[in-house]
Amino acid sequence: MKAFTFLSSALVLAGLFGSMAPEALAKSDNKGNKSGGSQPSQPAAPLTCASGSVTSNPLAGGSSLSYSQCITGSGNDVSGTVATGLSAFLDSTLGAGDWLFGGKSDTGGAVGSNGFSWRQNKEGVGTWSLAQAINAPFVISLKAGNGYAAYYVDGSAATQSGTWATFDGKDLSHASIFIGKPKVVAEPPKTTVPEPASTAALVLVGLSAVGLMRKQQG
Predict the structure, then answer these.
(1) Per the CB 3.0–4.6 Å rule, which of 82, 111, 129, 146 could disulfide with 103?
(2) Residue 87 in 3-state DSSP?
(3) Contacts for 137 with CB less than 8 Å, ≥ 6 apart
(4) What secondary structure letter does DSSP report for 49?
């Protein structure tokens, strides 16, 4: 009799536990999605240049200029040296050796001969400025999170400021600027013009020679 009562109780408990299991044992992922029968969350889309930006404000006024080329890379862009991917990007724009490193600012304070600095207005968005204006192409590289994005602006108008936004929406770790070297225009060869005194001396020598020839002929 006792064995029958114990077995009946066990069957009742098992039935109750089985009816609760599908809901009570369902697990949730990091985003709160339950794994019991629900679709797995989709992976985030790859971060691209278009997720961020760099613009330039012309000194003469008018609409701001946006970047025309960009690359993204993982890791650090500028530490002791310039990252290989960033260096190759610079070479692909103006050419190897045609860039001057304008400095890397970790805290936003002014660096480099042109006084490059930046300010973050809210997470991942801010402004940049120069103490000395430039009239040349430039690249601003933004390091945030585990990667960076480098934006090329053709510099068709003189500028001293602009805006930026990180490509992943995260706080800016540091920013670096590269400025195109001024183009050296070859000067035409100079033509040597005789001085007036030298010219007069040559004329006198010529006249003397003519007079001597006539005297000899006479």
Answers:
(1) 111
(2) helix
(3) 93, 94, 152, 153, 154, 155, 179, 180
(4) G
Reduced to 3 states (helix: H, G, I; strand: E, B; else coil), residue 156 is: coil
Confidence (pTM): 0.67
pLDDT digits (tens, 9 = 90+) for 185-205: 666 666 665 555 555 554 454
Closest to 175 in 3D by CA, of 118, 134, 101, 133: 118
Rounded (10°) CA dihedral 118, 121, 122, 124: -30
Count of residues for the chain? 218
Query: Please, what is the Cα angle at 75 between 71 and 80, to 5 degrees?
Result: 100
pLDDT category of residue 32 using cuts at 50, 70 and 90: very low
Residue matched to tokens 């530490």: 79
19: left (phi over 0), alpha (psi -120 to 50) or beta: alpha
Nearest CA-CA partner of 50 in 38, 66, 26: 66
